[in-house]
Design a protein that fits this description.
The complex is a heterodimer of chains A (about 160) and B (about 800). Chain A folds into 2 domains: about 80 residues, Beta-grasp domain (Ubiquitin-like (UB roll), Roll), CATH 3.10.20; about 70 residues, DNA polymerase, domain 1. Helix content of chain A is about 30%, strand content about 15%. Chain A has 5 helices and 5 strands, in the order ββαβββαααα. A 3-stranded antiparallel beta sheet of chain A has the order 4-3-5, covered by helices on one side. In chain A, strands 1-2 form a two-stranded antiparallel sheet. In chain A, α2 packs across α5. The longest helix of chain A has 15 residues. With about 800 residues, chain B is of the alpha+beta class. Chain B has 4 domains: about 240 residues, Aldehyde Oxidoreductase, domain 4, CATH 3.30.365.10; about 150 residues, Aldehyde Oxidoreductase, domain 4, CATH 3.30.365.10; about 140 residues, 2-Layer Sandwich (Aldehyde Oxidoreductase, domain 4); about 210 residues, Aldehyde Oxidoreductase, domain 4. Chain B contains 21 helices and 26 strands. Chain B starts with 10 loop residues before the first helix and ends with a helix. The chains are: A alpha+beta (about 160), B alpha+beta (about 800). At the A-B interface, α1, α2, α3, α4 and α5 of A face α8, α9 and α19 of B.
Chain lengths: ~160, ~800
């Protein structure tokens, strides 16, 4: 055990933990950030994704000792009580089914759009290729990413209470 | 009694239960005395009554009485309502649909209602989810009790205003005297926070009814609209609490240690091998079940990996390898055979046929492979057992665990919470049993979660099928006979939360004297063929206990397998007849006229036509001439029904003849499930269902050697990805009812039928594009490429 300092969503935490512990367990069990979720522990599915230094990072295979920069989790996307455009687009498209993987879908999409605000369909598919969903919401995820890109660019409006096709 | 004393309900669960009402269920039960009074039919009355003043933490946890209106609906003082239903939402929006159905019947605005689901001591036992019956079956008692609540409220207002109920109107929870609209009262003012005290009737929960009749379809205002799903915002901002997130004081973490191969016997455990791990608490073992318990999650993971266990390998092979599976299944003696009455005499007809076509189709074992592995948290405090679980059948888990632990049923409760869905996997909730067993052993709340390799190897499997089909034409080219003969490796099919068949029970040595027979499946279509027979055999693998090849209900159990064979074969027959695949099907659908299934037949014709129209189907036989270039394109159709829901799907594919890669570029679905409650939620359910089956079509196969499953993660049991996603999905919601305006138009189930035709639609499209018929699932690149090479299409 040793002291590890982490900055997450703007807050700094110092924890006495085994530094080889995967970041995921620290976020979930010590910091009560439950957006990142355990899916495989192998870095294959993306359910545990957080953003570190602009990179979508699989927290299940990231030892906490290797993290030097600030971590953003799903809980850190909304600012001042306002949803991030990606989150708004996810509601507008009514993307999630069970929702368990959607942390990974949204955080991977966030890193993608931060780097490339206007991705082509092929770039979206490639950028999201390794983020799995077993409810198979892919079609709506891809639509939501395009919608989010428009919202970020200031085109388009927020959600209505009723969904239209 | 204080809230905190109730049980160790975590704050987030409290919030879940309280999220939208001004009064929580618990407060309501407490202040109204309903908890006691609702037990009038139960021998527990006296016991519960005597405990009314004591903290409820001591239990028991009685069943809410479905014959009491108060068990279903609570009206709050602020004129909002909470509905309590015994179903669970697997992420397809059924919870929102229940609110729509009940709000409409009650005449409450949708956004003034909430719905609590699947908590065994708070909601009536409607069995949880399964069989796509939530709307089709359970929606009816929900509608009737809501209608009854409206009737009772009108009756109360009638007395208050001294006018007959038929001279009152209701708008959004406000009752007015029609002749003098200044005279009005809200539901909340009439009954807010108080009990209805109204008894319902019905021999079983599905038959629950009051005196009121449900509204005619034309009067429904919220049903048919698409309010946003109420579960989505919390799934998007990260605030949702899944069962996997539950944490209570004193909770510890467990991980299982599985046998390294099927049938291995535990010889010894070297506990010293993990004592150096910080936070180590205990190794728990019984029979061949082994788990480690530690303070922290990562410690439990490390201990499970490090624990030295001596296993004895079984003397003989436990099953054929996946490469030999189908030969084994073909030669095995069936354990049972389902032989429906044949139409005509297929054998004679085939002997006399001018042309006979035969084909054999193979579908491997496929996993449920949830995105998150099995998990549960069990709290044994106060001599009770509370299990926080995403079990789709939470009521069954409660009963099963009570039997497994030999605890009184009313000392066990299951708090259902959402979780990673796997469409049937959680109906036999291994982790819930394990958590409860471990919690009892260590005397503390225990959270258990499986690892990925464990989940993919040991979860329940959809059974492998091999299907022989024969068809015959007469000299005039008329189809005279079709014969279907399936073999399903489904012996000892896992039941729902059975205390003697869940994995932990098997590993502890429990054996049922008569394993479940399992089931083959036969085609569901409305074709009229003069001589027809459907035979379904079940075969057994050499070992059916303590095996990772245990079968369970995988989304539309066995339907995708049988429909792959039957609808591929219809296409093969159409090709042999040089007929257009849509025309060929319509001819078979319209050939009949003397059966009593005209309703299903009319709707079958409607969906096939609607799919063809939506796609822009060009009439011609398959295959089309193979074109130049690397990318070959084609289209295929398949159709089926399940219960009363009828579906036709069309796939358009691109096949890369150099790599064998198949991309389903477009999917069309014409879908008739009767009255649609929430069209947009339905569309997304259809999309997800089709893509789930597309994953099974293109990727999924459980591989194994003769002692263990070797498909253990997303690399070795691959799944559909964003790269496979069709560029376009078109969904047509058909209502093919011959009289779609009838007042009682029913709502049928929609969660599973769409999973059935996709495999054949893709296979038929590949044939159309390439002239190559793939008869073995999945269509991975190497299989497609090999078939193209064999056919000389490369």
């Amino acid at each position: 055990m040793s002291n590890v300092t982490l900055k997450v969503n703007g807050k700094t935490h110092t924890l006495d933990i085994d530094p080889s512990t995967p970041l995921l367990y620290i976020l979930r069990n010590d910091l009560d950030l439950r957006g990142p979720r355990f899916g495989c522990g192998l870095g294959q599915c993306g359910a545990c994704t957080v953003i570190i230094n602009g990179v979508a990072t699989r927290s299940c295979i990231t030892p906490v000792s290797s993290v030097k920069n600030e971590i953003t989790t799903l809980e850190g996307l909304a600012k001042n009580g306002k949803l991030h455009p990606i989150q708004q687009a996810w509601i507008d498209e009514q993307v999630p089914q069970c929702g368990f993987c959607q942390n990974g879908q949204m955080m991977t999409a966030k890193a993608l759009l931060d780097k490339n605000p206007h991705p082509t369909d092929a770039q979206i598919r490639e950028g999201m290729a390794r983020t799995l969903c077993r409810c198979m919401t892919y079609y709506r995820v891809q639509a939501a990413i395009k919608r989010a890109a428009k919202l970020i660019a200031g085109i388009g409006t927020g959600s209505k209470k009723e969904v239209t096709a | 009694m204080s809230e905190a004393a109730f049980t160790n309900v975590p704050k987030q669960v409290e919030e879940l239960l309280e999220k939208c009402g001004t009064t929580s269920r618990r407060n309501f039960l407490k202040t109204s005395g309903l908890l006691v009074v609702s037990l009038t039919a139960s021998p527990l009355v006296a016991k519960a009554g005597s405990q009314a003043a004591a903290p409820q933490a001591g239990g028991p946890y009685p069943d809410p009485d479905f014959r009491q209106l108060d068990s279903w609906i609570v009206i709050h003082e602020d004129n909002t309502a909470t509905f309590y239903v015994g179903k669970t939402d697997l992420g397809q929006g059924t919870g929102t649909a229940f609110r729509q159905l009940m709000s409409d019947e009650l005449d409450m605005p949708f956004d003034k209602t909430t719905c609590i689901m699947g908590v065994t001591d708070l909601t009536v036992d409607q069995g949880g989810s399964g069989g796509s019956d939530a709307i089709q079956v359970d929606g009816w008692p929900m509608r009737r009790v809501a209608a009854e609540a409206r009737r009772v409220l009108l009756d109360m207002a009638s007395k208050r205003f001294g006018v007959p109920a038929d001279q009152l109107s209701v708008v959004e929870g406000v009752i007015m005297v029609k002749a003098d609209t200044t005279k009005k009262v809200t539901y909340g003012e009439l009954i807010g926070g108080k009990r209805f005290n109204v008894s319902l009737t019905g021999n079983n929960i599905d038959a629950t009814t009051g005196q009121a009749k449900v509204k005619p379809v034309q009067d429904l205002k919220i049903v048919g609209k698409s309010p946003q799903r109420d579960d989505i915002p919390a799934k998007v901002d990260g605030s949702i609490k899944y069962a996997v997130d539950v944490k209570v004081p004193g909770m510890v973490h467990a991980r299982n240690v599985r046998p390294p191969m099927a049938g291995a016997k535990l010889i010894s455990i070297d506990e010293a091998s993990v004592r150096n791990i910080p936070g180590f608490i205990k190794v728990v073992s019984k029979g061949n079940y082994v788990a480690v318990v530690c303070q922290r999650e990562e410690q439990a993971i490390a201990a499970a990996r490090q624990l030295k266990v001596n296993w004895e390998k079984p003397a003989t092979a436990q099953f054929p390898s996946s490469e030999d599976l189908f030969n084994y299944m073909r030669s095995a003696t069936p354990t049972s055979t389902q032989r429906p009455n044949p139409v005509g005499n297929p054998d004679t007809a085939l002997m006399g046929a001018a042309t006979v076509i035969d084909a054999e189709y193979e579908i491997p074992f496929q996993g449920h492979t949830a995105i998150g592995p099995a998990h549960a948290m069990a709290d044994p405090s106060n001599g009770q057992m509370t299990i926080y679980s995403n079990d789709m059948k939470s009521y069954g888990l409660r009963t099963g665990v009570a039997q497994f632990l030999e605890m009184p049923r009313d000392r066990v409760r299951v708090v259902w919470m959402e979780g990673p869905q796997a469409y049937g996997r959680t109906a036999a909730d291994d982790a819930g049993f394990e958590a409860a067993f471990l919690a009892k052993e260590v005397g503390r709340p225990v959270r258990v979660q499986w690892m990925r390799q464990e989940e993919t190897a040991w979860d329940t499997k959809g059974p492998a099928f091999t299907v022989k089909m024969r068809g015959g034409f007469d000299a005039q080219g008329n189809l005279v006979a079709v014969d279907y003969e399936a073999r399903a490796a489904d012996y000892n099919h896992l039941g729902y939360n059975e205390p003697d068949t869940v994995l932990i029970a098997q590993l502890m040595g429990k054996r049922r004297s008569t394993p479940a027979p399992g089931g083959g499946a036969t085609p569901s279509d409305m074709y009229t063929i003069p001589n027809r027979r459907n035979i379904a055999h079940v075969v057994s693998l050499p070992v059916v206990w303590e095996t990772p090849l245990r079968t369970g209900n995988l989304r539309d159990p066995n339907g995708p397998q049988s429909t792959f064979a039957s609808e591929s074969f219809i296409d093969e027959l159409a090709a042999a007849a040089k007929a257009d695949p849509v025309e060929f099907r319509l001819k078979l659908l319209t050939a009949g006229n003397a059966d009593n299934n005209a309703f299903l037949r009319a709707r079958s014709i409607a969906v096939v036509k609607a799919a063809a129209e939506a796609y822009g189907w060009d009439k011609r036989p398959s295959p089309k001439p193979v074109s130049n270039g690397n990318i070959l394109t084609g289209r295929g159709i398949a159709y089926t029904y399940r219960s009363q829901t009828v579906v036709a799907e069309i796939a358009e594919v691109e096949v890369n003849r150099k790599t064998g890669h198949v991309w389903v570029k477009r999917l069309v679905c014409a879908h008739d499930c009767g009255l649609v409650v929430n069209p947009e939620a339905l569309r997304r359910t259809i999309e997800g269902g089709m893509l789930h089956s597309l994953s099974r079509t293109l990727h999924e196969e459980v591989k194994f050697d003769t002692e263990k499953v070797t498909s253990v993660d997303w690399a070795t049991h691959p799944s559909l990805t964003h790269l496979d996603t069709p560029a376009q999905i078109d969904i047509v919601l058909v209502n093919g009812d011959p009289n779609p305006n009838r007042p009682d138009l029913p709502h049928y189930g929609a969660g599973e039928t769409v999973c059935k035709p996709t495999l054949a639609a893709v296979a038929n499209a590949i044939y159309d594009a390439t002239g190559v018929r793939l008869r073995r699932i999945p269509f991975r690149d190497e299989r497609m490429l090999a078939a193209l090479k064999t056919a000389g299409v490369v």
